[in-house]
Write a structure and sequence with these properties.
By secondary structure, the chain is α/β, with parallel strands linked by helices. It has 31 helices and 18 strands.
Length: 675
């Protein structure tokens, strides 16, 4: 039998975490400190110590992460580790709910709504209730769903969410509550669950059915949660309920990397863990295996100013390393030119494009850079935009599969029917209404050839017998002519549909494919320009939120300026500013060797008060100015790309515009303060 030398494999802090078995434990894992290694080795250690794999539960934020950890644990020890239960909160909830569906008066073949489908249902209810006819601007479907979702995930009243985050809609509190009630009723009638329902129903199962909770707690005697700083209030409650009988819970995370409050993540979950689980042992991982010490000195200094935190000071045993560089460029295009030229220079030095990333706070920050990269034929992949499964043509084809699996799925029926020529919303509603009545249905379809084809296909396929790939292939031929009618760029979209088919071929059942499509949607790179060097993987452009957990040899962070990072939309409360600080920290800790921080000296973006003269001077981000961070830990290159004379001329031009528009022009500080 294989014997693991944990003392050789792990540093002292990691070893302490791995060998801690019973009781509650909080592992504060600094960026790049090997938290995945700890989780992998702890799974192996528990199994090695005689804990049955079936008694271990590993909860992560992507199923891919759980699968990879268990794969590595199996290689480390043996195949027993593959029998550990691992997955996301949502996939775990899905499995448990399908098993205990009857206790909650659910059908076990319920369909999971993705966000776009949920928004469509909200819009339908909003229209049926005539709230869209309000004299004042009533919130749109996306905003309504966001409010409802935050209410659920934060375990807060609709009114409280509106007051804190959407004060402009506070007068519609009663109407949104009514929409929420109707939305829940609609889902229950149609056997539909959205993402939040999976967690709500699981929590209800655990709180209202003590025998089930007790059985699950007995089954999962050792629970581990990854990225605990990203959990919401509901998820934290579920963890507490599962661990209530034995208290054998280890959560791993980094308070300094809590950046998803907009998704409902609760920073307090990790901060308050020792208060919730009395006697919890705190283990801090501080040795960094990613970055050089000069980069860590900068990030340590920035996060040291956080108002609420677990103390840690990251260090590395790596020798040397260059100091992070700050470049104050003349304007946005100069910033783009600098980045593009530096990237080409790095490639000449042997750094592959795939090992370089440009990070930014908001998606639009890279617009000018994308044009510059394209003009130089530098291939790139951008992350942080539309997800693959949210593309209209993907949702179109998937709607046919959803209907084949669950003929009560009215959201998918509506989408599929509206693709057919000569069928509008009213006709579609009639068809959906009479779907159970075969005779009435035949009357409606007899004059529509496409509708006849659709129902003939639905008769032929069997979601229990046929694989998802087989069903998609059948409907692919039906959908192709409709695709050509609906989209001018149908040829480009065909490639995506081929990708969907290839993904479907990995699955045996429709249920698992549809569950994964809803809970673990595949990512697709959007690579531009069209001309791409086949021997060179693309450069990464990414929002900071999409870059978490990744690392690159060289990282550029653009728009490191007040109003951009931190965003002017996140300056109202101390909590918002603190999360912006953590965003900067996450971005900077992605760099292994080189870190470049840039800002345009002159900002001409639309968000920079265009009607007030078209440009403003930017101020360096407060996160670099606090405590002299910029002077002590950064190599400052001011006015890069232009000389002192150019600088004076620019200041004169801006000064003239400021004087001409004095009544309207404000400095960023004045503007943000007034906001």
């Amino acid at each position: 039998m294989k014997k693991i030398d944990y003392h050789r494999e792990l540093n002292s802090a990691q070893l302490k975490a791995v060998e801690s078995i019973d009781g509650p434990h909080l592992v504060i894992a600094g960026a790049g400190s090997g938290k995945t290694r700890v989780l992998v080795h702890r799974v192996a250690f528990l199994v090695e110590q005689g804990v049955g794999p079936e008694h271990i539960l590993l909860l992560t934020f992507t199923r891919r992460a759980a699968q990879e950890m268990l794969r590595r644990a199996s290689l480390l020890l043996d195949e027993r580790c593959k029998n550990v239960s691992g997955g996301t909160f949502h996939s775990f909830a899905n499995t448990i709910l399908r098993k205990y569906a009857k206790l909650l008066e659910l059908n076990n073949n319920f369909t999971i709504l993705d966000q776009a489908d949920a928004e469509d249902v909200i819009n339908l209810i909003r229209t049926q209730l005539s709230f869209h006819k309000s004299e004042k601007r009533f919130p749109r479907k996306h905003a309504i769903l966001e409010v409802i979702s935050k209410s659920v995930n934060k375990s807060a009243e609709i009114g409280a969410v509106l007051f804190a985050e959407y004060p402009q809609f506070i007068e519609f509190s009663a109407e949104i509550k009514k929409i929420q009630q109707e939305y829940n009723k609609y889902k229950r009638q149609k056997s539909l669950l959205d993402y939040d329902d999976l967690l709500v129903f699981l929590k209800n199962l655990l709180t209202k059915h003590e025998t089930v909770r007790s059985a699950l707690s007995a089954k999962y005697k050792y629970i581990m949660v990854d990225e605990y700083q990203d959990t919401n209030k509901l998820q934290a409650h579920i963890v507490c309920l599962l661990a209530a009988d034995h208290g054998n819970i280890m959560v791993v995370g980094d308070d300094a990397q809590s950046i998803y409050s907009f998704r409902g993540a609760n920073f307090k979950n990790i901060i308050d863990f020792p208060k919730i689980f009395k006697g919890a042992k705190i283990i801090t991982l501080e040795e960094n295996y990613r970055s050089t010490q000069p980069i860590l000195n900068l990030t340590n200094a920035v996060i040291a100013h956080a108002k609420e935190k677990f103390e840690k000071n990251l260090y590395t045993k790596k020798k040397g390393g260059s100091t992070p560089v700050f470049i104050d460029c003349p304007d946005e295009n100069s910033q783009s030119v600098f980045v593009a030229e530096k990237i080409l220079e790095l490639r000449e030095e042997g750094v592959p494009l795939k090992d370089i990333a440009v990070l930014f706070r908001s998606g639009w920050h890279s617009n000018d850079l994308e044009v510059e990269l394209a003009s130089r034929n530098i291939p790139f992949a951008k992350y942080g935009g539309q997800k693959f499964v949210e593309a209209a043509h993907i949702k179109d084809l998937v709607s046919f599969l959803r209907i084949a699996y669950n003929q009560h799925d009215q959201v998918s029926w509506l989408r599929a029917l509206l693709l057919i020529p000569r069928i509008g919303p009213k006709t579609a509603a009639k068809i959906i209404e009479v779907t159970p009545d075969r005779a009435k249905l035949e009357q409606l379809w007899q004059n529509n050839e496409e509708l006849q084809k659709l129902f003939a296909l639905l008769k032929e396929v069997d979601s229990e017998r046929d694989s998802p790939a087989q069903i998609i292939e059948r409907f692919f031929g039906y959908y192709q002519p409709l695709l050509k009618i609906k989209y001018d760029d149908f040829n480009k979209r065909l490639n995506d549909l081929d990708s969907l088919l290839r993904i479907a071929q990995r699955y045996k059942t429709c249920e698992q494919f549809l569950v994964d499509l809803a809970l673990e949607p595949p990512e697709r790179m959007i690579v531009e320009p069209a001309r791409k060097d086949q021997d060179d993987s693309p450069l990464t452009l990414s929002t900071i939120h999409s870059a978490k957990g990744l690392e690159w040899h060289t990282v550029f962070i653009i728009y490191v300026a007040e109003g951009h990072l931190p965003s002017y939309l996140s300056l109202e409360t101390e909590e918002q500013v603190e999360e912006e600080r953590r965003l900067f920290y996450v971005a900077a800790t992605r760099a292994k060797v080189n870190l470049f921080l840039l800002k345009p000296h002159i900002d001409r973006s639309p968000r920079s008060f265009m009607d007030a003269g078209g440009s403003v001077f930017t101020q360096v981000s407060r996160f670099l100015e606090q405590g002299g961070v910029l002077e002590e830990f950064v190599d400052v290159k001011k006015n890069a790309g232009f000389d002192e004379l150019d600088m004076l001329e620019l200041e004169d031009i801006i000064g003239e515009k400021r004087n001409k528009n004095k009544a309207f022009f404000e400095t960023p500080d004045e503007y943000f303060h007034n906001e």
